[in-house]
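Please fill in the sequence for the structure shown.

STRUCTURE ENCODING:
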């Protein structure tokens, strides 16, 4: 009898699963916990191309990285966010996701260093056939259900508009997605292109050690108000510990 004919895929097969989750970030870890809770006995694996849990919150390391949604609703319903800081910093969210993975014994199900390069539906067996790049070469996995929790942007190349004359710029050009660990911006004048959530977190943190201006100070004040809003504090105290978001 083939694996497609069984009620569940054999647990002793290392290449076949009832469910495969793509991504070990906030969504992927949450999906795994719910799968174990709501569908006990399901044979599953998490495919993660990097070597760490956390997804966005492990990849991005620029100064001031934080959530742009409050963690009381972005966090898990089964493990409510307990910190008073609703708009949380990246390291705190990364710790929260890792803590959840260990608390609910999800980590053993993660295949680190596995990159999905193709997914094809096989009608004759009613299975997804996945092609993966791994540290030991290309592998093929099979699954009944493919759960995509991989985010919506490229880890290999962030959005990079073309700027005329960029090649003439003599300073350092940095993309937040690939922030160098050894970048020294102390005492230097910094120009941030963009006015979205990344800029609103990046600018005030750069301003704490780089050349300052009044416009930077105003952005820092807005960030403080967002992170410690009076409304979020009141909601946190009024909401039962068993409630949550994601």
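FILLED IN BY: designer on duty
SEQUENCE:
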């Amino acid at each position: 009898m083939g694996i497609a004919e069984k009620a569940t895929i054999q647990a002793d097969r290392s290449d076949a699963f009832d469910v495969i989750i793509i991504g070990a970030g906030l969504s992927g870890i949450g999906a795994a916990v719910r799968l174990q809770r709501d569908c006990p006995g399901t044979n599953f694996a998490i495919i993660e191309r990097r070597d760490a849990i956390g997804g966005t919150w492990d990849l991005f390391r620029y100064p001031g990285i934080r959530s742009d949604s409050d963690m009381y609703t972005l966090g898990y319903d089964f493990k409510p966010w307990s910190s008073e800081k609703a708009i949380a910093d990246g390291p705190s969210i990364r710790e929260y996701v890792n803590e959840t993975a260990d608390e609910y014994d999800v980590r053993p199900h993660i295949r680190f260093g596995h990159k999905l390069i193709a997914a094809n539906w096989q009608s004759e067996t009613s299975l997804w056939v996945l092609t993966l790049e791994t540290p030991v070469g290309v592998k093929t996995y099979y699954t009944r259900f493919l759960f995509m929790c991989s985010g919506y942007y490229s880890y290999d190349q962030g959005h990079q508009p073309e700027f005329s004359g960029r090649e003439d710029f003599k300073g350092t050009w940095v993309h937040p997605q690939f922030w160098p660990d050894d970048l020294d911006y102390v005492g230097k004048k910094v120009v941030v292109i963009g006015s979205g959530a990344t800029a609103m977190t990046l600018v005030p943190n750069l301003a704490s050690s780089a050349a300052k201006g009044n416009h930077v100070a105003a952005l820092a004040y807005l960030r403080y108000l967002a992170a410690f809003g009076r409304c979020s504090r009141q909601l946190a105290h009024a909401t039962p510990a068993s409630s949550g978001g994601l």
